[in-house]
Amino acid sequence: MNDDRNQKNDNNTPLLVLVFFLTLAVIACGIYFVSGLLGRSGSVQTVSVTETDTVTASGTEAVGETGAGSEAGTDAGGGADVGSETGTVSETGADVDSETGTDGGNGSDAGNNAESETGVDLGNAADAETGTEAQAEDDEEPDMDISGASDEEGGSGALPDGGSISAGAFGQEDSLDIVGVVKKTMPSVVAITNQSVQEVTYMFRGTEEIEIESSGTGIIIGENDTELLIATNYHVVEDASILTVCFWADVEDEEDLIVEAALKGLDESKDLAVIAVQLEAIADEVRDQIYAATLGTSGTLIIGEPAIAIGNALGYGQSVTYGIISALDRTIEVDGVTGVYIQTDAAINAGNSGGALLNSDGEVIGINSAKVSASGVEGMGYAIPIDDARPVLTKLMERTTREKVAEEERGYLGIFTQDISEETRSLYNIPNGVYVSMVESDSPAEDAGMKQGDIISSLDGVTVTSADGFESLLTYYSVGETVEIEFYRADKGSYEAQTLSVTFSEQPQEESSSDERFTPPFGGMTPFR
Predict the structure, then answer these.
(1) What's the pTM value of the predicted model, to 2 decimals?
(2) Catalytic, out of 235, 239, 298, 457
(3) Taking CA 405 as the corner, what is the angle to CA 399 and CA 407, rounded to the nearest 5 degrees?
(4) Each residue's pLDDT tens digit, 35-81
(5) Catalytic residue at 466?
(6) Which residue from 200, 180, 187, 363 is spatially nearest to 282, judged by alpha carbons?
(7) Is residue 360 among the annotated active site residues?
(8) What are the residues whose beta carbons fall under 8 Å from the beta carbon of 278, sequence distance 6 or more?
(9) CA distance 234 to 213
(10) How far apart are CA 85 and CA 470, in angstroms?
(11) Catalytic residue among 271, 335, 361, 388
């Protein structure tokens, strides 16, 4: 028996040894695994991010603005982003030309109704069903006069200075009343539709003219004896053949909400414009419900305080987004023009250009104009500070309202102009403006004393920064009108500021052939006759 037991024990010994070593191996692996976890948990991976952003300005998406490519520029803002962003800037506020009808949208929507609606007509901001549902009938109207944004005498006087501004409701007993702010301000914001004609060149069909419809936003800022005055961005109304606005009011016939507007004044260099609506064209039912917005001040803004954006996002009608002031004094370049902006994370979408950025008191602190649009970038919108916009708007409100002149009645100037690149401008110390590359013989410009090489900086008091902008401006002047042109002329290595008066004449019957023999110094050339 003992021999049998000893034999069995001898047979079990290798098995016990194997189990022992396997146990040791498992324990060793466990210790290695746990130590690896502890080692990894003690470090944080740092990723350096470099991105190329596209800054879209909330004013014109479509053939030429946001939807049609970006315009060169640099986004100086970065907020809390890691690394620096170098972005291009384009205007975002005028959605254009889709194929299928308009989404009625809900005017008080939080601004997200565009997410699932691709392929709709984003440009029809003036449609009676585009977000124009009015506030409930029992909502109490603020007791404000429609001319509240102008001086006490009425008319188109200077815009009032902003008073003190609340730093926001955070940390106070009462929470921020976003609904109250929106109800107070919505009747002061309008949807703008821009119908324009653009030339498109096809490879085999040549050049054709097509109609483009885009959308943006405006803010009612005052009135004079005959007109309601609305502030917006220059790029929202640029090249407009027909402008219409859609008011926010509760009416029986929604067609009463839509009224034609005309250009009052514009400043391309500041991306600002004022349009006018004839008071007699506005239905009494609408006039009783709309009023001028209250302009605050951007000079006392604090980073982190609330910000509310209202605008005609994607042309669906008025919508509202909410965020904070993310940064101040952000310098960015939009379409070749550098400006200083307020940065906010309140969503700014195409169609929002010209809309209101509000503080917690419902005062306008900025005019929404641009946004960063790039993969991995969220919540970087920009607004023109109201303190910067106020003096420009005051000046524009005082100009004569103009409409485009029929082509056969437009005045003839007789010059060719072209843009100057920033590199060339810096290299030769050339002032801002457009270069006069040729002056035609016996033309009004030559008779007035203009010469090749002059740099035109303004026409009739309107700042000129691009050849296209100058061309668009000339379409508002007819034969026989006299205007002043401010320009710079080279003199012994420097430029002298000068002014001349020129009277537009009729278009010549035969085109001069001199342009075929002329080679412009800076590349392309545009005739403005």
Answers:
(1) 0.64
(2) 235
(3) 150
(4) 444 333 333 322 233 233 334 455 444 433 333 333 333 343 333 34
(5) no
(6) 187
(7) no
(8) 226, 227, 228, 259
(9) 16
(10) 32
(11) 271
